[in-house]
Structure formats: C-alpha cells, structure tokens
Specification:
The chain has 511 residues and is an alpha/beta fold. It has three domains: 75 residues, Archaeosine Trna-guanine Transglycosylase, Chain: A, domain 4; 134 residues, Ribose 5-phosphate Isomerase B, Chain: A, CATH 3.40.1400; 230 residues, 3-Layer(aba) Sandwich (Rossmann fold), CATH 3.40.50. It is 30% helix and 19% strand. It is built from 16 helices and 23 strands. It has a seven-stranded parallel β-sheet, with helices on both faces. A four-stranded antiparallel β-sheet has the order 1-2-5-8, with no helix packed on it. A four-stranded parallel β-sheet has the order 13-12-14-15, sandwiched between helices. The protein is globular.
C-alpha cells in the first residue's frame, strides 16, 4: 500500500482487480488513470479495469467474489454487482511450519502484573461473584453492588472491583450447552485477573454449582488454599439471606486480594485476545495488519496471542492452515470450519453471507473480503494450536479459538480461556469493553477516532493518512498493550464498561 496521501485509490496487491477509495470520490473525478462514472464512498472498491460477468475479483491478491454483471473500469464494485461465487484455495497444509525463534531473554520485554498460581500473571485484580444460573443473577448483582467503587477506593485501593458474572442460561439446556457454560464459568473462576470469587446458584438448576466446582477441579485450587464458597439460594433460606451471607464472604476475601502487589512479569505470561467488530473497508488496510504486527512482536517476546471468530475467517482459513506447525493443527481448524458450515445449514442459513449491514455500508462486500482483512490480525506467526470455545489457552505463540463472530460471545470465550488483555479493532465504532480483562480499541480511520475519541484508545488511521507505516502503528499498539497490562486504564474502563458484556455462547436447544 502506498503511503502517499495524494493518491485517492489504494491498490493492495499487484494482482488486484479493485482498489479502495481513500476518501469519498465524486462522479467524474479523475482517480489515477480512471475517470469515475459515479460516486464512490470512502473505503469502497473501484474496478481498476473492465470485469466481465462471471470473472473473479481479487483484493489483497486473493479471491473475494465474482462479477454478477459486466463491470466497467472505474465503477463502484459492491453488493449490487458482486456474487460470492465458489472459492478454491488449493492446498491447505503444505509442510510443517517451524515455531519462530524467540528474542534472547535479555532482549525480551516485561510488564507489571500480579503473580498468580500456576505460573500465570494478572493484569487486573478483581473479586468475582459468579452466577451458576440466570435464576441467581439478580442476587449476584445485589452482592456486587454493595461494594461500590468509592468504598473500594477508600478501603481496598488495590482491588479493581467486585464484578457479578451473570448470564441467561444454566438450566433447561442440553449437555453441550451446559458443558460450554461450565467451561466459561470455570475459566472466569481461574482467570488470572480474578483474585478471589464466590459462586451463587439457585439450587435446583441443571448447572449445579457443586458439580461445576467438582468437574473442573475448582475444589482443588492451584497453589493450595481453600475451595471456593458456594451458596445456593434455596439452601440459604432465600434471596435476602443469600445476599447477606455472600456480602460477608466477599468482605472476608477483600483484604487478601487488596494485599496483592504488581511485580515484574515476563511476556510469556501475557495472553492477548485479538478481535474485531464493526469492521469496514479500512480494517484490512490499517488496524488489522497493524495489530498483526503487534501480535508478531508479542510472540517473538515469548507471549501468546489468540485469533478467533471462525465465521469471520471463512474463505481465508487457508492463510492460517498453510502456516500450521503440524498437520493436526491445520486439520483441527478445517474441522471447525466444516462444523460451522453444517451448523449454519441445519438452521437454514449460510456462513458465506456474513457481512452485517454496517460492514456493507463500510465497504465490505463478501465474507471472503471481510475474512481476508480479519485474518490480518494474526500477523505472520506460525499457528500453534486450535482451541475449542473457552478452552484454556496455554501458548506460547499464535493460537486460534473457535468462537462465533458476535463480539460479546467471542470475547467472552477468549477471556474465559485466560486472555488477560484484549485488543479490538473497529471501523464503524464499537464501544466494547469486558471485565475482567482490559480491552484496547483501535480505530481504522482518523475521522472515526476524532468522532468517538472518548471510546477509541488508538488510531490506526494514520496509515491511511500517510503519517505512519503499518510497523510504526504496530509498535504503538504493542507498547499500549504492555502499558495496559501494567495497569494503565483503557477508555472502556474509564467509561465503566464491562459488567454487561459477559455473554457465554448459548449453544444448543432450551427445553
């Protein structure tokens, strides 16, 4: 991509049939060798030469669809004249990819975090009130609200908050739904950003709190210590008694949590979630490849990054499978893609038509185009592992977690898997934040950053403006990740977001 701001069209690869409009272009305007027959919105595509009906269309040097009608040179290329078509990616796993050589120990960066059992580190220090079922959600919220931010700052300044993790499930679900929910809740209980927790249930639900504790080994905490307190409303004698007993329990946990202090941690204890939402035509040009550059830096320093959103790598999965460290890793990713095809078909849908209304308005035409931009968040590092939803991430290196594309559900799985920092790229303006992991938001273009400056942490639009390169913005993102891991608060944290965004994947029927 050229960094020359005077060039109104951005051609991303020599083989591309389309270029991206840097800004809104008017009908009759000259754009390079093209005179435009109609207006082109910013971030939308322009045909670089005539495209006959049925001919393939390339962007990033990759197939994104076929012309559904004859398209003249200079014309707007979008949903009105493009079909998804059939994708042929060729071979997936070609040969084992060797893990990257890490930087020498003396050159690796560190961050200031909380030492946790099992060789892990927290970037925040919360107390959790975990609800086993929606029937105990209100009680869990009542408990958390008793510990106001003002009171915690006064009495326990080392505690970031008391958070209720509530949801809409926990009963009347099939085994698969209960299994996923338990994996998520156990992941939150074990999360390195959780200093202590209590579990509150109703008592008669399918997702029995005691079974959750036993099945996931929460009754045998890493590093010793007492098993978690489990309270059931029916056994405690009702809501009021449960609230008072839980408040007393949390009050007893706070002094030990507040006594925790930050100390120097290696980047091998940093697990970074890579997510995007509200994407646009700039996402794959600016914020996503810059985040990919930062991801590669984290990997070289010994850390772990996790890409996700399986329906949003659809059509670009070959770019990941071809750099898998083993055939089993490549096959595992392809198996998850096939599962999603079957899952969508079972519900009378297809994952080949994924871009949302906002994505399309922002210039993304097909799922293949969207996926090619989304995969850029994973940089160039070898793919080390493929994980189930909310499965514990061990690392190091680049991993992939199978999640839906819906942002709160995807990020909940990544955080439950142990990610202690998140980075979220957006071109339309997502205001996402998630507790207990801080989440940095990166704008894909400068107008969005200026318009939503209270919500955006970083601006990757400087790449589009010709002021910075992808590596330079990637370095800024990397430094922001380390500062956030060390305690610097993100915009979403400053705004108080994160209590309502916990959303476990509601997979399976409800009876």
């Amino acid at each position: 991509m050229s960094a020359n701001q005077d060039e109104v069209l951005i051609r991303l690869h020599p083989d591309d049939d389309v270029a991206v409009a840097r800004r809104r272009l008017l009908a009759g305007e000259q754009a390079g060798h093209l005179r435009l027959p109609g207006a082109i919105p910013a971030a939308h595509k322009v045909a670089l030469h005539p495209l006959a009906q049925g001919s393939p269309i390339r962007k990033y040097g990759q197939f994104i669809g076929r012309a559904s009608v004859d398209i003249p040179a200079g014309a707007h290329v979008h949903v009105h004249n493009v079909d998804t078509g059939e994708l042929a990616t060729g071979d997936h796993f070609v040969a084992p990819t060797a893990p990257w050589d890490l930087l020498p120990e003396a050159e690796r960066r560190t961050f200031q975090g909380f030492t946790r059992p099992g060789g892990r580190a927290g970037t925040r220090n919360y107390v959790a009130v975990i609800s086993s079922v929606n029937c105990s959600a209100s009680v869990s919220q009542f408990v958390a609200r008793r510990f106001t931010p003002e009171a915690l700052r006064r009495d326990f300044p080392g505690v970031d908050g008391v958070v209720a993790f509530t949801h809409k499930a926990g009963c009347a679900t099939a085994d698969q739904g209960t299994e996923i929910l338990q994996r998520v809740l156990a992941g939150i209980a074990r999360h390195p950003n959780i200093g202590a927790y209590v579990i509150i249930g109703l008592g008669c639900e399918t997702n029995q709190a005691a079974a959750l504790v036993r099945r996931h080994g929460l009754d045998q905490p890493e590093g010793g210590g007492e098993p978690p307190l489990v309270l059931n409303i029916q056994q405690q004698g009702g809501m009021a008694r449960t609230v008072e007993d839980a408040v007393k329990a949390v009050a007893g946990l706070l002094p030990a949590v507040a006594a925790q202090r930050r100390s120097t941690q290696p980047l091998s204890r940093l697990l970074v979630a890579l997510n995007c939402g509200g994407s646009d035509g700039h996402s794959g040009i600016t914020a996503n490849p810059a985040l990919g550059w930062a991801s590669d830096l984290i990997v070289r320093h010994g850390g772990t990054t996790v890409l996700a959103e399986t329906p949003e790598i659809y059509g670009a999965e070959h770019l990941l499978t071809r750099r898998a460290v083993r055939r089993e890793v490549s096959d595992a990713l392809l198996e998850r893609v096939r599962w999603w095809e079957d899952h969508a078909r079972m519900h009378g849908a297809s994952i080949s038509n994924n871009p949302s209304a906002g994505n399309k308005e922002g210039g993304l035409t097909t799922i293949f185009e969207k996926s090619l931009g989304a995969v850029a968040k994973g940089g160039q590092a070898p793919l080390m592992a493929v994980l189930q939803y909310a499965e514990a991430v061990t690392g190091p290196g680049l991993c992939f977690m199978d999640t839906p594309g819906y942002d709160p559900v995807s990020m909940t799985g990544l955080v439950a898997g142990g990610c202690n920092v998140g980075v979220f790229t957006t071109g339309r303006g997502s205001v996402y934040g998630c507790k207990p992991a801080p989440c940095l938001k990166v704008s894909t273009h400068t107008p969005l950053y200026r318009w939503m400056q209270d919500d955006m942490d970083l601006n990757a639009g400087t790449i589009l403006d010709g002021e910075e390169s992808i590596p330079q913005v990637g370095e800024r993102i990397f430094e922001a990740i380390l500062a956030t891991a060390s305690g610097e608060r993100t915009k979403s944290e400053q705004a108080g977001l994160g209590d309502e965004e916990f959303a476990p994947w509601p997979l399976g029927p409800v009876f």
